[in-house]
Amino acid sequence: MRIKRKSKLATKLGLFFLISILLLEGILFMVLYFGFLNERIMAETDALLARGNSHRDVLAKHFNRETMEHVALMESEAETQVVITNEKNTILVHSNKVMPTIEEKIASSNPLPVTGAIVEGDWGEEPFVTTGSPIFVDDELVGNVYMILDTQGIRDVRDHLTTQFLIISGLALFLTIITIIYLSRIITRPLIDMKIATQKMSTGNHDVSLKVDRNDELGELAKAIQSLSDDLLRLKNDRSDFLANIAHELRTPLTYLNGYADIAQREALSLDERNTYLAVIKEESENLTSLVRDLFDMAQMDQQGFSIDRESVDLCPLIHQIREKVKPAFDRKGIDLKVSCQNDIRLTIDPARFSQVMLNLLDNALHYSEQGKHVLIDVSVSQKTVIIKVVDEGEGIPVKDLPFIFERLYRVDKSRSRKYGGSGLGLAIAKEIVERHGGSISANSEEGKGTTMTIALAGVE
Ligand SMILES: Nc1ncnc2c1ncn2[C@@H]1O[C@H](COP(=O)(O)OP(=O)(O)OP(=O)(O)O)[C@@H](O)[C@H]1O
Ligand SMILES: [Mg+2]
Question: Cα separation of 272 and 290, whole Å?
């Protein structure tokens, strides 16, 4: 399947960018067009009207041909034109040649107010703006002064602005395309790569490699996804290892059970022999039961269904109780078990789970020590933290194995541990329980000298 690499985000951002620029530019254009140009034309027409009015004032005093020609002569040098008519709007004098359109306009113009008026103000469409001022002599209308201004200049400015507006729009469009390309390279391409990576991961393909060399948020996200993928891969491998180990763990006792059951079934067996085989079968099935129980505990821990029911506990009596429980097994093997515990240490813990941890540690101390050795449970308190040590003089743990003994199913010497029915789950469970209590567990060991397991639990009352 070909994965679509089209970058929707970049297009969206780019269009947003384009619309923003066009909007801003449009507003600017409107302001210039209507504000600036209109204001300028208004100022010009006002000035035109004022000039017409002042010509009118002169003509009102001397309404004769000479004055009219004088006024026309004055205007002939200016940008503007003047047209003087009689009261019927028949042209008497003009400064420059009068265009027929202007002539028509003047001929059709309405009677003008005394203050004068704008006869044509549409600078956008008409080539000229025109004002008119009536001339009164002794309160009688004798003629009109029309002033005419060419609007070409202002229209040029407008056309120039329009061209610029179009150029800027084109430029914005170009910049938008560049931005879209840039954004899709810089922002959305890595996002799309990450999307593809996560899709791959969700289909169970953990062979993901993302570019993680950027040191921004996208780089961090890529790193997070990469490490998630690596973790998933590791978990997947761990799980298959674990399953393979479990299968192996189960197969061994089952082979024994099967084998001994076959032998025990033989008819020619004495009662003693049969009992021996049955005892082996019983022991193996007990081992299996305990393995299954441990596995069940582990499964519960993984599913968060493992509850810790805390209560206030007087630690020393609990430790002595545990000692009493394991004492017979220690006695049987001829190992001395001592407890050193100061009185009155109160802690809020789950006594059943805590006992499970201690039994696991003591079980190891018993199994991995020889007859005649000593084991000590030493309890002390320092800075509101209780330190519980299980010290043995057993065979110890090789340095190379020490970092792994808390891992599930890890055993130093498989055959040796197997002899005692050990499966390598005891310490993993102990560690989990201690950590759920907010504490820590660690091991110190020297081969041939002994092992010290140390639990630290905070919160002594
Ligand atoms: N006190 C000890 N002295 C020597 N080796 C030890 C001691 N405690 C643990 N070990 C080593 O660490 C390994 C892991 O211990 P752990 O208790 O997890 O498993 P186990 O005792 O083999 O099986 P089980 O699940 O029955 O406890 C053991 O197999 C053993 O090799
Ligand atoms: Mg053990």
Answer: 27
